[in-house]
Every structure is written in C-alpha cells, then in structure tokens.
C-alpha cells in the first residue's frame, strides 16, 4: 500500500465481522483495504475474490500442529484443498487476465510494462497449472512473444498492426489517383464516412469510419487500402 498498490484481503467469514490480524492495523490503513469475506475451502469464493488481481499472496493456513493430530480433516481441507482452490483460480483468472492484456495491446492502448506482465503471467500459469491443458494454455502467447516480439512493440510504440488485422489500429484511405468517383464506396459505407461527388476522388472521414472494410471490398478500381 505504501507503493500505491490497491490491496484486497480475503478474510475468513464470521458472524462477528472480524478481520483477524487486520483488525490490529491503524484505521487509516484499514480504510484503504478492500475486504472480501469468505472461506478458502470454497472454490467459488476464492475465484470471485481473485478476479482482477495481478498478484496474490497465499497466507491462509492452519498452523497449530497438536490440533492437527485429532482433527486432520480440517487441515487437509484448509491447507491442501484451500491451496488447490487458489491455484485453480489463478489458472482460470490468469488466462482471462492474459486476454485482457492482449486485447489492450491490439486496441492500441498497451504499454511496454504490459509485455512484462504478459510474460510473467504466462510463465506462472504454465508452471502452476495442475493439468496438461492449463500448462499448455499460455504456449501460443509465449511463442509469439519469442518469435514476433517486434510486432508487439510495433503495436505499442507506433500504434500500428504490421499484419493489418487489428481493427482498432487500422486506417482506410482512398488513393485519389485511382479513385474514379463512381460513388459505390460512399453508397456502401454504413457509417456515412465517405464523401465526394461523381467522377471526383472521394475521401474517408477516419473519425466516422467503423473500419468494417465494406468500401474496400466493393471498390472495383483498387483505390482503397488499409494500414
């Protein structure tokens, strides 16, 4: 919190509304913490609490050894199954977080720090997933980062998609030399983003363009390009 991070705490639900050791914190710090009351043994609650979190510190455990001798089930449920719930949630939430970060980049809103987060998250999912499917889920991302990192950088720094497939980064333009002014593109455009008179070069208003590509498909003279 001293570094400015937003902190969420997962506390064991009880009818008294107590937060355990967190109750000993100064009130001004407690006011800044988002508390989720639940049970580490409940996978649904754990998954819900972990949504949107970048880093998770798992500190939930029963430590009184003598008590474990006559009540071992409670230790298995909390320490083993509870940890399994955290790992499964990290896998499930982690893949969604990967998608969010990748979408951010393809929308032209990514940063170089996002690349580091993607790599870290992908490696974590690969190392901590308990099934083969989970372990291979981040492989496509790791492969593209390894072999096509320059394209990620191009999306981030220059807001340009070299492959011409990221819709948010595309711009359609009309070559005035090739345009014959047939008006077909203007009549096809669903957003009314193309203007021009008959037999005169037309122009695309990039602010109105929805980047559907309909104009380029209809143009018979190859006057419209994207990039």
Descriptive notes:
The chain is mostly helical and 227 residues long. 45% of the residues lie in helices and 9% in strands. It contains ten helices and six strands. The protein has a two-stranded parallel sheet. Strand 1, helix 1 (27-30) and strand 2 form a beta-alpha-beta unit. Helix 2 (43-50) runs parallel beside helix 4. The longest helix has 35 residues, at 72-106. The radius of gyration is 26 Å and the shape is elongated. The mean pLDDT is 88.
State the major sheet. 2 strands, parallel
Strand order of the largest sheet: 1-2
Straight-line N-to-C gap: 43 Å
- The number of distinct β-strands equals 6
Throw out a few tags for this protein.
mainly alpha, two-stranded parallel sheet, 227 residues, two-stranded antiparallel sheet, 9% strand, elongated
How do the helices and strands line up, and which of them pair or pack?
Layout (H helix, E strand, L loop, with lengths): L7 E5 L14 H4 L3 E5 L4 H8 L14 H6 L1 H35 L5 H17 L3 H5 L2 H9 L1 H9 L14 E3 L9 H5 L5 E2 L7 E2 L9 H5 L5 E3 L1
In short:
This protein has 227 residues and is mainly alpha-helical. The chain has 10 helices and 6 strands, in the order βαβαααααααβαββαβ.
